[in-house]
Write a structure and sequence with these properties.
- The complex is a heterotrimer.
- Chain A has a domain at 8-46.
- Chain A contains three helices and two strands, in the order αααββ.
- The longest helix of chain A has 18 residues, at 24-41.
- Chain A has a two-stranded antiparallel ribbon with strand order 1-2.
- The two termini of chain A are 43 Å apart.
- Chain A is mainly alpha-helical.
- The relative contact order of chain A is 0.10.
- Chain B is of the alpha/beta class.
- Chain B has one domain (3-471): Alpha-Beta Complex (Amidase signature (AS) enzymes).
- Chain B contains 14 helices and 13 strands.
- An eleven-stranded mixed β-sheet of chain B has the order 1-3-2-4-6-5-12-13-11-7-8, with helices on both faces.
- In chain B, strand 7, helix 8 (266-280) and strand 8 form a beta-alpha-beta unit.
- Chain B starts with 7 loop residues before the first helix and ends in a 10-residue tail after the last helix.
- In chain C, the strands form four sheets. In chain C, strands 1, 2, 6, 7, 8, 11, 12, 13, 14 and 15 form a ten-stranded mixed β-sheet that branches.
- In chain C, a hairpin with a 4-residue loop joins strand 14 and strand 15 (255-258).
- Chain C folds into three domains: 2-289, no CATH class; 295-372, no CATH class; 378-436, Arc Repressor Mutant, subunit A (Orthogonal Bundle), CATH 1.10.10.
- The relative contact order of chain C is 0.11.
- Chain C starts with a strand and ends with a helix.
- The chains are: A mainly alpha, B alpha/beta, C alpha+beta.
- Chains A and C meet through helix 3 and strand 2 of A and helix 1, strand 9, strand 10, strand 16 and strand 17 of C.
Chain lengths: 101, 472, 437
């Protein structure tokens, strides 16, 4: 497991995927830092994990559900829902026009 | 009157006996805040009505004492930013479960404390609102990410505090600030209403002046939350009843002191000495050597945990911070600070097509091995002890020197954190030259906070490192 | 010559009371915007999801109805992409361990295999508007977090007609189970065909496929698929493959149009949802859900054919909905030995009673009345009509000139000679005759 070498270009690609705007200069600096970080991560490559089940949760809990009931105690009024939005109009949140449909 | 120096236990007692009034207590706390907050940069927001809230709560278990709360807990009426410009001005429309419970038991949120932005770090230097300074010595960092809460306790700017830990964020700042910090078992305290960092390890918990204070706060914030599917439905043990259980006959494993980065350091020496204290108290203490592979009665090299934690945490961070798009609240994604950008992007990379198996899945497999390692160790030992941090607090600016600063600071806590284990920091050494502390980390098996508290209290009572302990 | 290769992705909103992961109402249709939200479905900082048990059970129920294998172990995963209607920047969905795998629906064109059925959450809704002269998109999160089942078929469909039949059968099953309104106009059932063409005789999957969205009726699904088949054939004839893309059905243009892609590149970065513990189901638990399954449309239709001696088409019509089928069976019971099940079936098919207001007993009573009227042979009727028309040339001329009332006048004359005959029967025959003269 060798860390893929990060370049400003590969970092920009990741930035696009992550929706993080960065300058080319930042991309260059980040590439350097990522390489350092992934060197540490690459040590995991030395561990024999054959047949080991990955753990994504540690509690061992299973089948945690809620009953199908309305919980009005948590519901917001329209005013509360919109209160922290920067742009709103007639009860809606507003974003720049999406052109896809 | 110096009432701000009271422990939680003392303050409740004196309030209930009417030896002191809320007005007097809050005045001393607020005077201390006025005196020190500008220099130390601990509080981001204060509740001007805290004292009047406290006065109404005399007949509750926590009697209306002022509690400092890390700024990643949602608190309606108090701006909640997680120390990020992205959430500047965010007024939460709902309350985190931990804070609801704290308030119901009579705790009063006196203010919101500084932290590493989004809890990303172990210094409180990545805060978009400037670093917090260590009250023990302001040239030094308080640690993090709950640096503001730990510093608030150390500087007596509150009676007790709430923090959260993902891997070290309660215990490491508690160690550097010379206070007590309890990280409960993952799932013991609700994450509902806590700005998520790494969902599979985030754990709210108390930071206090004494082990007893932490046990008391734990009692009032822990427990099942129907709004958080990872909380345990098991009854919460009353930790204050465990305090005097002692360590006689307890089997204790001494961990990490033989790691190459620790051998011969003040941290290792202090913990070895702590081991001797436990022996004198009747416990059986055995060294648990560091090993490069999982084998019985050995501790896996923490280097692996660093890799696991780096991948898991950044992956979850990249996901948890995807909701900040500036549409419903907060600023847009350009407002993230450098550390958040780094973590989001690295996490995005390790989860992306073609790399997820190589990094993310593999990290989760090694995580399973680490859990097996602890499982085996806890078949021999009641608790494990180690240094909390590899050393004393570092100077301001240290966190900017390495992209792996935080991971190296927390290397001794990451394995237990990715395993969900509970742990506590208690002060175990003070360097008179710098006034800085070394912390002892006591780890227990899942849901075994009781044993952790027993050992921590016994140690605290047997030694003089905690300035508040003998008073309570 | 080409053979269409079509797979379908169908999203069905469950009609649970509450949301997939929170207690907000699942009924979001035509509600005031952003009035049915909470920290969870609005994606606020710190909010954590808890799955709705009924939604999970209903998905398992649908899987059982489709003959799927129900997972003994399943989990939720996060699917990441950025879009303003997706509040968390990820959708909680299922990736590699869906609740149900496999299964099939039989159609007259052959079986269509089910690839998988999984459970996820719906997104908010976008609409376009001009606010203060600026073109913007408005976002309403009432729909966010509504339980959504995704059914994916294998590419076993080879014509627009077959696709339509499959969809109708799936729609019927979902409605039988009572787990969704599956109302396409309201968007509670949404269809996305994947279409490509291969040369007849080839067996592998073509090197491209086109996904079509925005389809809100079976008819449009059929048209869109036909449109695509023709479009692909034309492109393939020139020696190139059609572009792999997502297109939308444009009702006004009666055509599909290319859509901009949502993501720069689809890389959903799935990983197991850390906020929700995984699910494990015992065989007994699955069997218990199976025991609540109603009789499904195909089985019911065959039983109607066998038990009541109905023709396939009539049985199919009467089993169109569970309510109609129940109504029929109730009416058969009321009819007892008075009328045969076939008589009752014909009566319902011809009369099309409003089953919500006409009780089965009332229906049978009306059948009794009708039977009391003399059944007039078609020849008798036509003879009398001819006579009346011949004797009333002026009225006939008036009718031809557009006077509708003349038909009623003529009917009255016929009726006088056949007082017990059914009015509607007379009128139908009369109009037919008038239109033919």
């Amino acid at each position: 497991m060798k860390a893929s070498p990060f370049t400003a270009a590969t970092v920009q690609k990741i930035a696009t995927l992550a929706h993080i705007p960065i300058t080319d200069e930042e991309a260059g600096e980040l590439a350097h830092g990522f390489t350092t970080t992934m060197d540490v991560v690459d040590k995991l490559g030395k561990v024999d994990v054959k047949g080991v089940t990955p753990t994504s949760q540690v509690t061992g809990f299973e089948n945690v559900f809620r009953e199908d009931e309305i919980d009005s105690s948590r519901m917001f009024t329209q005013e509360q829902a919109l209160a922290n939005g920067k742009r709103t109009h007639n009860g809606f949140f507003v974003v720049d026009q999406i052109l896809d449909e | 009157m110096n009432l701000h120096r009271l422990t939680l236990t003392q303050a409740i007692d004196k309030l209930k006996k009417k030896e002191i009034s809320h007005a007097e207590l809050y005045k001393d706390v607020h005077d201390a805040i006025s005196e020190k907050n500008t220099e130390l940069n601990i509080y981001l927001a204060l509740d001007p009505e805290a004292v009047s809230k406290g006065e109404k709560l005399l007949n509750t278990p926590l009697a209306g004492v002022p509690i400092a709360v890390k700024d990643n807990f949602l608190t309606p009426g108090l701006e909640t930013t997680a120390s990020s410009n992205v959430l500047k001005g965010f007024m939460p429309p709902y309350e985190s479960t931990v804070i609801s419970r704290l308030k119901k038991s009579g705790g009063v949120v006196v203010g919101k404390t500084n932290m590493d932005a989004w809890a990303h770090g172990s210094s409180t230097e990545t805060s978009d609102f400037g670093p917090t300074k260590n009250p023990r010595n302001p040239e030094y960092l308080p640690g993090g990410s709950s640096g503001g809460s730990a510093a608030a306790v150390a500087a007596n700017l509150c009676i007790a505090a709430i923090g959260s830990e993902t891997a070290g964020s309660i215990r490491q700042p508690a160690a550097w600030c010379g206070v007590v910090g309890l990280k409960p078992t993952y799932g013991r305290t609700s994450r509902y209403g806590v700005v998520a960092m790494a969902s599979s390890t985030d754990t709210p918990g108390p930071i206090g002046k004494t082990v007893r204070d932490c046990a008391l706060v734990f009692n009032h914030i822990a427990g099942h939350d129907p709004y958080n599917a990872s909380t345990s439905t098991d009854p919460v043990p009353d930790l204050t009843k465990q305090l005097d259980g002692g360590v006689k006959g307890m089997k204790i494993g001494l961990c990490y002191v033989d790691h190459h980065a620790l051998r011969g350091t003040p941290a290792a020496d202090a913990v070895i000495t702590a081991g001797k204290v436990f022996e004198q108290l009747g416990a059986v203490v055995e060294p648990v050597p560091v090993s490069d592979e999982v084998k019985p009665k050995h501790m896996l090299n923490p280097d692996y945990a660093i890799g696991v934690y780096t991948v898991v945490q950044r992956g979850e961070v990249s996901s948890n911070l995807a909701r900040y798009d500036g549409v419903r609240y907060g600023g847009d994604r350009g407002a993230f600070g450098d550390e958040a950008k780094r973590r989001i992007m690295l996490g995005t990379f390790t989860l992306s097509h073609g790399y997820a198996d190589k990094y993310y899945v593999r990290a989760q497999q090694v995580r399973s091995l680490i859990i097996q390692n602890f499982h085996e160790l806890f078949s021999h030992y009641d608790v494990l002890i180690s240094p909390t941090s590899p050393g004393f607090a570092q100077k301001l600016g240290a966190s900017t020197q390495s992209p792996m600063y935080g991971e190296l600071e927390d290397m001794l806590l990451e394995a237990s954190s990715v395993s969900g284990l509970p742990g506590i920091n208690v002060p175990c050494f003070r360097d008179p030259a710098t006034n800085l502390y070394i912390g002892l980390n006591i780890m227990g098996n899942l849901w075994q906070e009781a044993k952790v508290i027993r050992a921590a209290h016994a140690y605290e009572q047997a030694t003089d490192w905690n300035e508040w302990a003998k008073k309570s | 010559m080409y053979e269409p290769v079509i797979g379908l992705e169908i999203h069905v909103e469950l009609k649970t009371k509450s949301g997939m992961f929170c207690g907000c109402p699942a009924d979001h249709f035509a509600k005031v915007p952003n009035t049915g939200t909470c920290p969870v479905c609005l994606g606020l900082p710190g909010a954590t999801p808890v799955p709705n048990k009924k939604a999970v059970e209903w998905t398992i129920m649908l899987g059982l109805a489709l003959g799927s294998t129900i997972a003994e172990f399943s989990k939720f995963d996060r699917k990441h992409y950025f879009y303003p209607d997706l509040p968390k920047g990820y959708q909680i969905s299922q990736y590699d361990q869906p609740l149900c795998r496999g299964g099939k629906i039989e159609t007259s064109f052959g079986p269509v295999r089910i690839h998988r059925v999984h459970l996820e959450e719906d997104t908010g809704k976008l609409q376009h508007a001009t606010v203060n002269g600026e073109k913007v998109t408005l976002v309403d999160f009432n729909r966010s977090g509504v339980p959504l089942v995704e059914i994916v078929t294998e590419a076993d469909i080879h014509s627009a007609e077959a696709a339509k039949e499959f969809l109708k059968k799936l729609h019927q099953i979902v409605r039988y189970l009572g787990i969704s309104d599956a109302d396409m106009e309201k968007g509670s059932m949404r269809l996305e065909p994947n279409i490509s063409l291969r040369k007849v005789g080839e067996t592998g999957l073509p090197a491209y496929k086109v996904e079509v969205k925005n389809i809100n009726s079976f008819r449009f699904a059929e048209r869109a698929i036909k449109y695509e088949i023709e479009r692909h054939a034309r492109i393939l004839d020139t020696g190139v493959n059609p572009a792999q893309e997502t297109r939308g059905w444009d009702e006004a243009k009666n055509a599909t149009v290319s859509q901009r892609t949502k993501e720069e590149a689809a890389d959903y970065r799935y990983f197991p949802e850390p906020d929700i513990p995984p699910m494990r189901f015992t065989k007994q638990y699955i069997a218990a859900i199976g025991s609540t399954l109603p009789e499904l449309p195909d089985v019911k239709r065959m039983r109607f054919e066998k038990t009541y001696g109905l023709h396939t088409a009539d049985a199919a019509q009467l089993t169109d909905t569970r309510a109609l089928a129940d109504y029929y069976e109730e009416a058969v019971k009321v009819a007892g030995t008075m009328f045969t099940p076939k008589d009752v079936a014909n009566w319902i098919i011809n009369k099309k009673p409003d089953i919500d207001t006409v009780l089965p007993a009332a229906l049978i009573a009306s059948l009794k009345d009708a039977k009391a009227t003399v059944a007039v042979s078609a020849d008798d009727l036509s003879g009398i009509i001819s006579t009346v028309l011949a004797e009333n040339a002026k009225a006939v001329a008036d009718y031809k000139a557009g006077k509708q009332q003349s038909a009623m006048f003529l009917m009255g004359l016929v009726r006088r000679k056949l007082p017990k005959a059914d009015t509607k029967v007379i009128l139908d025959a009369l109009k037919k005759e008038l239109d033919n003269t």
